[in-house]
């Protein structure tokens, strides 16, 4: 049996290492922090990251946003998953982060296994928007036109594995219409081509530049994807009024690599909540039509699980694939 002196030494050593660890992480961050956004500049997740990241500099180091543009954001996300879990590489990502495992074969990362949740920053309604040349003013009018024109109409998405694609495929199925997809590498390029008339319709995050394009008459908005009217688009009826049961939303959240120390995660979460309470930061977020959440990490884990349950079923039943 170990002697009493050995037991005392072991306990003292363990306590000392624990205090050293706490001291080390109390100094976080030790250098600039990379905030990886796996989508193109100008999309909702990019805009939100560029509002939140500078505000986190209050922790003592710059938080620098880097765009890693790939289909579904899978490569940029994988890079974060493989990063040293010390809080110096973070991910600000969007809703399909939760369901890419159902869309891509041989995906190397898992959202629940390989990442530690920090917080869901915000959520957005999705807005059904068309080019004004279609001449429709309501969801019902668009469905009638789409049934008449069939596959001569096309729809844009932010990518083959994007929430705009999944939401529109669900809409298309429930409306019993056939429109041809054109997938882009992010919401920004897709929106540009919708405004120019290269594509006719999108069901996309209600953040970013959509509202300004609506006000300028460059886009016609027909409805929102939420079950009730959105405070950001009170003039738009829910799509569910025409297609009962239809409901989707987009969101943006921050994650760290799995095994990131809890002390670091707590610092990040606390700093985000503090900055979002800042009226200036809050106003900038809400100007993007961002419904602020900033909930606890546990709530983000439950959100990922619920998204997997909902969209996993839709992907299987509608045979949605990434070509």
Give an overview of the whole structure:
With 323 residues, this protein is of the alpha/beta class. It has eleven helices and eleven strands. It has helices at residues 4-26, 44-55, 74-81, 100-103, 139-149, 163-175, 187-196, 210-215, 262-276, 279-286, 297-317; strands spanning 33-37, 63-67, 89-94, 115-124, 126-130, 154-157, 180-183, 201-205, 220-224, 250-257, 291-292. The chain has a six-stranded mixed sheet with strand order 2-1-3-10-4-11, sandwiched between helices. Strands 8-5-9 form a three-stranded antiparallel sheet. β1 (33-37), α2 and β2 (63-67) form a beta-alpha-beta unit. The longest helix is centred in the N-terminal third of the chain and has 23 residues, at 4-26. It is globular. The protein starts with a helix and ends in a 6-residue tail after the last helix.
What's the arrangement of strands in the largest beta sheet? 2-1-3-10-4-11
User: What would the principal axes of the Cα set say about the shape?
Assistant: globular
Compressed to H and E, one letter per element, the order equals: HEHEHEHEEHEHEHEHEEHHEH
- Specify the structural class: alpha/beta
**N-C termini distance:** 64 Å
DSSP strand (E) fraction? 15-25%
Overall number of strands:
11
Fraction in helix: 40-55%
DSSP helix count? 11
Q: What does the average pLDDT come to? A: 89
Low-confidence regions: 1-23
The value of Rg in angstroms is 22 Å
- Biggest sheet details: 6 strands, mixed
